[in-house]
Every structure is written in C-alpha cells, then in structure tokens.
Write a structure and sequence with these properties.
Helix content is 59%, strand content 0%. It has 184 residues and is mainly α. The longest helix has 33 residues. It is elongated. The two termini are 27 Å apart.
Length: 184
C-alpha cells in the first residue's frame, strides 16, 4: 500500500481508502515522459471537428438570416480549425507530426462538410425570402457535392480560399512540435 499523502485542503479523506493509486515519479527524478496517443487524438479530434463544424454552420445561418449580404462567413472556418486543433492536442497530449496530420484531416473534412450544409441552408433561406418553395433534399449525391465546391471555386475563389484558414489554424495548434495542452 502506498504511503499516505497529507491533504492540502486540511480535511481528512472520506473515501474508504487512504489515497488513490498514482503513477510513481521517474526513478531518475526527471520529468515524466509524455507519449503521443494517436487513437485518443483521433477520437477527440473527430468529436471536436464535428462540434466546430456544427457551430460554424449554426453561426453562419444565424448571421445570414439577419444579414443576407454578409460576405465574411467563410472565415468561420477558423473556428473549426481552432476547436479541432485543441481537440486533437488534448487527445494526443503532445503536438507533433501525428497530431498535425490528424488535425489537418479532421479539420479539412469538417470544413468541407460544413460548407456543403452552409451553402444548402443559404439557398433555402434565399428561396424562402423570394417566396419560392425551398424543398432541397438533404443529400443529392457526391456529384452534387463536387458541383457545389466547383461552383464556389468558379464563382468566388477568394471566399473558397478562406476555407483553408481552418485547417491551417488546426495544424498550427496541434502540429507544433512538443506543444502540450494548457494545464497538462
């Protein structure tokens, strides 16, 4: 049984055991080695990318509903990159190549998925404002998705390039060598 550690709060423990099991400090007295955990990073990165994409979609629709002429919505991809990069970094526990690649993949997928749904929502809002029926199917196939991206590229390359800000931010956050999450 490990030795009892005095309480820093001055209260005695009400648990049925003396102290929870903890990792022993390294034998040489140095700092503990932090191991990158790619599977944990993949799980938290996927959850964070999904959350970031949904937040961007919701914010974009809310702004477009009140201000249809607002043209800076593509910069919301930075929110996706920020949330995804932090999520991957928390999961992997250390920045580096693996963390950066995970952040790049998840943030890119989240940005592309969010742009599809943002474009669909903007089209529905515009049709309803024009007094036309807005019965757009949720999914029309991969060919339609490719047409949406190709249309954005042909119509407004500046806005399409703004989507790259999200993955760049995610890679900078999670891919920085030996970066540790705050508080870790």
């Amino acid at each position: 049984m490990p030795p009892s550690v005095p309480s820093t709060s001055g209260r005695t423990s009400q648990a049925p055991w003396n102290n929870p099991a903890t990792a022993a400090p390294p034998a040489d007295g140095g700092l503990p080695v932090v191991v990158t955990r790619p599977l944990d990073g993949a799980l938290t990165g996927l959850a964070a990318a999904t959350l970031g994409g949904v937040l961007w979609w919701a914010a974009s629709v809310a702004v477009f509903t009140s201000q249809p002429a607002f043209e800076w919505w593509p910069l919301g991809s930075v929110l996706v990159g920020l949330v995804t990069g932090i999520g991957v970094l928390l999961g992997t526990r250390r920045g580096g190549l693996v963390s950066g690649l995970l952040a790049l993949v998840f943030s890119s997928a989240a940005v592309l998925a969010a742009v599809y749904f943002i474009d669909r929502s903007h089209a529905i809002i515009a049709l309803e404002d024009a007094g036309r029926p807005a019965d757009i199917p949720l999914w029309q196939g991969f060919r339609h998705v490719a047409d949406v991206y190709r249309g954005w590229w042909d119509l407004d390359r500046e806005h399409a390039l703004m989507w790259l800000a999200g993955p760049v931010v995610a890679v900078l956050i999670a891919g920085w060598p030996n970066r540790r999450p705050i508080g870790a």
